Amino acid sequence: MKEDHDLLEQIRAAQQNPDAADGLIRQYMPYVKSETAKFIKRPPLEGHDDELSIAMFAFYESILSYRQEKGAFLGFASTGIRNRLIDYYRKEKRHRGLISLEQPVDSEGDDERTLLDHIDTGRDDAAELADRNAAKEEILHFSAQLASFGLSLSDIADSCPRQGRTLAACQKALAFAVEYPELLDQLVQTKKLPIVQLCAGAGVERKTLERHRKYVIAILLAYTNGFEIIRGHLRQLSRKGGLST
Are 115 and 159 in the same domain? Predict the structure, then answer.
């Protein structure tokens, strides 16, 4: 169908271009709100309901990780949003004892299903599990840190290394920076990546770090603030290629 083809082309563009990703997220905000409403059983309120922020992040993740062989995109995104929200509720249950896994979340007529009914036990990939367990507070805090550098989550996706050699070079630079806290301090204070020091200390080419500057900044910011789950997620983005051609 032409509609499906158009959406596929939009996703391809969004995986390569941050502006396209932001545009696609804005375009499908009614869908994200609808999926959130199905889960919390009422329309979500922007700036008030944590669930909506988590659903937006899950939709963004779905854009980045989608492949044609995974089926219809909206169904794929719906599963990602639902699993993210389930794990958020589970985390709230563990830490504050407020949410019951037995509470109904997706009733149709008289048939009410609980959180436990929704849990997809087949998803045992470590990276996906770490992604789903990320707390909303961590996501928002990290997004705020990125914003102070003029970056967004979709900017990072565009800058992720896709080739093994490039990824290895970026990892060498990251490992060197982590060993020298003064470089992390310099990054935070100047809002600029210390490329000269990283290239000299890690022995990597300047053009490599310049090409993936946003990705390296994001990882280092995660190190400066202890975002362990976010850090793992960003590493995984570099291993997720685009759509198969």
Answer: no
Report pLDDT digits (tens) over 199-215: 999 999 999 999 999 88
Q: Look up the pTM and report it.
A: 0.45
Buried b / exposed e over 78-114, threshold 16 CB at 10 Å, is bbbbbbbbbbbbbbeeeeeeebeeeeebeeeeeeeee
- Counting the structural domains of the chain, the total is 2
Tokens of 54: 């988590």
Using the structure block, give the residue that is written with the tokens 């982590």.
Answer: 178
Domain span holding position 220: 147-237
Q: Are residues 128 and 156 in the same domain?
A: no
Residue 119 scores a pLDDT above 50: no
Work out the burial of residue 172: count CB atoms within 10 Å of its CB; fewer than 13 is exposed, 13-18 middle, 19 or more buried. middle
Q: What percent of the chain has pLDDT over 70?
A: 68
In whole angstroms, give the CA distance from residue 190 to residue 197.
14
Collapsing DSSP to helix, strand or coil, 104 comes out as strand
Structure tokens at 2: 């032409």
